[in-house]
Amino acid sequence: MIRFIIGVIGMFELCYPHRAISIWTKLAYTNADDAEPREWFLNVAKFEGLLLILTAVAWPLFQSGTDDEGEALDAEDSVPDDDADAEGDDNIPISID
Length: 97
Prior knowledge:
The protein is mostly helical. The chain has a domain of 58 residues. It is built from 5 helices and no strands. Helix 1 runs antiparallel to helix 3. The longest helix is centred in the middle third of the chain and has 18 residues. The termini are far apart.
């Protein structure tokens, strides 16, 4: 769900940077009507939107400790059991010719 929200915000910022800056400015400042963004700030807002979209898309690549459905793995699932291999090695008969 959070990936979807991040993606929507990113798409909004990328497509409508003037409106996004206006909304964020009204949320951040008490007197937002006097605030004027610099010309380069529109490009920064577009870049931020692109980064948010890429984050939403690439999110699963950076998650560790989860399976394919996003469920957290148990400690038994994430750590290989080395003892199982060692037990089988002790029972191998060794013949010396």
